[in-house]
Specification:
Oligomer: homodimer
Number of helices of chain A: 6
Radius of gyration of chain A: 21 Å
Largest sheet of chain A: 3 strands, antiparallel
Strand content of chain A: 5-15%
Helix content of chain A: 55-70%
Strand order of the largest sheet of chain A: 1-3-2
Structural class of chain A: mainly alpha
Shape of chain A: elongated
Chain lengths: 120, 120
DNA sequence: ATTATAGTTGAATGTATATTCAATTGTCAA
DNA sequence: TTGACAATTGAATATACATTCAACTATAAT
């Protein structure tokens, strides 16, 4: 592998380290999925929704009230969370009750909180 | 608490559940910090950088080559990661070597991967 | 059947942010 | 001290996406 196979305009490339790292990088597809997953938690509204649903199963209107936001925006976000299989719902008459679909979410929250250095 | 204290235009509010949930919600500031933190991992480039740095400490140019991206964009992202105290760096001559600053990152990655259901 | 309402959906808008480009800083070597 | 280069930085651009608004669907009650 000669230097001009590298994309970068510099002379001090540590070829061995770069090659070793490249070798160890998993399929790039994993990073897309990983980022997609973390992005879900990387929004204040969604984080609140998930925390709230971790306390109680609730209908859309209840969640909207807990967060002080419109039904529509909550519903949009719930749609996103549903598509990512992070929440699931059950329909009872006109109402739709949402709940967490995944135990990992709780674990992730706790690690995140630990990182931030807050107790709750 | 009368119904019109609620923000939502619906009749089926489960007052007890809403009040209970509100009571259990932590300081809203926590959600901002939490979301801010997860947002960091919620970007493909940053996820790759962190994974790469988990394999080897590297200079900016090396990272750029591993990811096949420009030095500038990598440097911008490293700046973000540094400001969030997720990576740290040491300067050696003209070069700046970056490494992970935080063990939680690894744990978070693993949980994320577990969620996605991939092995690596 | 008609009306009211819980929830969803699509389009539009505004905001956040990733990457590029160009200029700049700091350090080494000659 | 001058030239080369690793890295940073700011501004500009482009893209992604959260919320709003309005229209629509489905269910329940009268």
């Amino acid at each position: 592998m000669s230097k001009n196979e590298f994309i970068c305009d510099c002379n001090i490339i540590h070829e061995d380290v770069v090659k070793d790292t490249i070798k160890k990088m998993p399929d790039m597809d994993l990073f897309n999925k990983l980022a997609e997953f973390f992005k879900i938690l990387g929004d204040t509204t969604r984080a609140k929704i998930l925390y709230a649903l971790d306390q109680n199963e609730m209908c859309v209107c209840d969640i909207a009230n807990v967060l002080g936001m419109s039904k529509s925006s909550i519903s949009h976000q719930l749609g996103t969370l549903r598509r990512m299989a992070i929440v699931k719902c059950r329909k009872v008459g006109k109402e739709v009750y949402y709940m967490l679909d995944d135990d990992h979410v709780k674990g992730l929250f706790e690690l995140g909180i630990e990182h931030i250095g807050h107790g709750i």
